[in-house]
Amino acid sequence: MSRLHTRFAELREQNRAALVTFVTAGDPDYATSLAILKGLPEAGADVIELGMPFTDPMADGPAIQLANIRALANKQTLAKTLQMVREFRASNDSTPLVLMGYFNPIHKYGVARFVADAKAAGVDGLIVVDLPPEHNEDLCLPAQAAGLDFIRLTTPTTDDARLPVVLEGSSGFVYYVSVAGVTGANAATLEHVEQAVARLRRHTDLPVAIGFGIRTPEHAASVARLADGVVVGSALVEQIAGAANPAQAVDGVLGLCRQLADGVHSARKA
Amino acid sequence: MTTLRNGPDAKGLFGSFGGQYVAETLMPLIHELAREYEKAKADPEFQKELAYFQRDYVGRPSPLYYAERLTEHFGGAKLYLKREELNHTGAHKINNCIGQILLARRMGKKRIIAETGAGMHGVATATVAARFGMQCVVYMGSTDIDRQQANVFRMKLLGAEVIPVTAGTGTLKDAMNEALRDWVTNVDTTFYLIGTVAGPHPYPAMVRDFQAVIGKETREQLLEREGRLPDSLVACIGGGSNAMGLFHPFLDDASVQIVGVEAAGHGIDTGKHAASLNGGVPGVLHGNRTFLLQDEDGQILDAHSISAGLDYPGIGPEHAWLHDIGRVEYTAITDQEALEAFHTCCRLEGIIPALESSHALAEAFKRAPKLPKDHLMVINLSGRGDKDMQTVMHHMQQKEAQA
Fold first, then answer.
1. Over the stretch A83-95, which tens digit does the pLDDT of each residue have?
2. CATH number of the A3-266 domain
3. Measured between beta carbons, which residues in chain B are less than 8 angstroms from residue A132?
4. Is B380 in contact with B361 (CB distance < 8 Å)?
5. B19 vs A contacts (CB less than 8 Å)
6. A182 neighbors A60 (Cβ within 8 angstroms)
7. What residue of B is the nearest CA neighbor of A128?
8. 10 Å Cβ neighbour count for A216?
9. Chain A contact for B45, CB < 8 A?
10. pLDDT digit string, tens, across residues B176-195
11. What ipTM was predicted for this assembly?
């Protein structure tokens, strides 16, 4: 049973949504980023998305672009990101961890070597923004053969005709990008989210997590009433950007994570 | 018979290069674009309108000019220049822009976005947007804005909004990232008018088809003039659209030697260059799998070239494939060699070439003296050098200061 499957099943039993947090590996540096990563489960993160830095993050807005630049400036590499996962797993065997990013660094690392190393490090799933189902053979199929979940992004432009194509081969959960745009920009209306979740549920039994533009505990709570998971990224990453020192960065991210978790976890109790 | 001219396959692949590596938000649109383009291509009305604008607005056919003095000077191959610099807006870029804007109109899009390096594609896009009454936004790296002020002004005169991109090194790659971000945000209203034979399928094939008018004309013009096909073709390559346009109609003619010229910048071994095939390895960027300048970790490296139009760390996927199968020879020319060829062309032919095209000239000038007098060589003069006056002046002053 995969960690993602187990986690979403537990949460369903408890009738609460998952808080899915995104941070970029190595932002602002390896040690600080590892401290943040290790602190996230205790601060209430149910699922962790860890960004693999890339020079050209075409689907990301300014906050995550800057996170990528900070991490790369401090010499983060894909090998170091996998090392970070290994160090995280030394003290945490239950929180699902998903690597998220763009294909080129994986392509360069070598797909076979990457899926083997990722699995061995304790990675549970992959989200690769620029690999649509049209290119399943590049990474999705080898990753799933190695026991890694491949999480698809679906979007407002993914219509009913295309949705089955996108969902076929998806595993772990479905990530619904609630607005057409880049990360950290505007948020979708709750009405749109509700309709989108209903549409996805007609096509899949996988848990549905909603992302893009969710920044506050209140907003996260309102989305948590509608979906199985709430993804927050840019708002957490901005805590790192605004920090005066590493300790502040850790406190900022984990502090906001706690607030978001309170919102998400109490959402359906009110 | 087997042909090299029927690519890409249904998945947009030339061999293992190309494809559709973009975010899901864009996938439905890209499929729609591919379908609409196929329909337009087969529609005689679309082709008729395209031909009309090529003739009366762009000024086609462009001449195939026998460069008599250059030929005499080098004393070998007979050199012909395909005069794309005489097109409206001063380069080959407009061939593609006219085609894509007609398609955008057909698809009901009212807002055009583009990326630009040297500004030639930006100017050509702003031009056709003005002609067809569409809103136009051009993304341009801040470094390129500094070195191409005149083109920035031209775009603004034509009614386009020029948005400076400060991310990365502020060059073409960064402008393309930002254009993709705009597109993903405004996917319903916006047509992304990509300027080269790169990006997700169908762009590499579509841009090639619109540029192939260069090669088709060259073929007819040389047959008329010399009664036979050329022995060799030479064109410069950034993304590779002028080269693809010239090469494509000749790919199946085994007797025609084809040479693509990348920008070697300060030299391939210095690491400061823009030669993706000569100095890069395969990877995935901007929607396609192709040769890229990248480091050991798969991070994209900054390209360098004296010519902003070649300053890109990738190359069109069809070139990557032609390189892979060995049909086209890809060489590289340094900044210094391009500058020398620039001056030679100015002085001997009274033609001021773009620094991009000067790379092709430099390669041709290296080869010409060693070739027999009956060797027919066609060089694509893809753009005029008016935009490069400041850059050239700067280099001449530097040289004088050193002397």
1. 999 999 999 999 9
2. 3.20.20.70
3. 20-24, 27
4. no
5. 134-135
6. yes
7. B23
8. 15
9. no
10. 999 999 999 999 999 999 99
11. 0.96
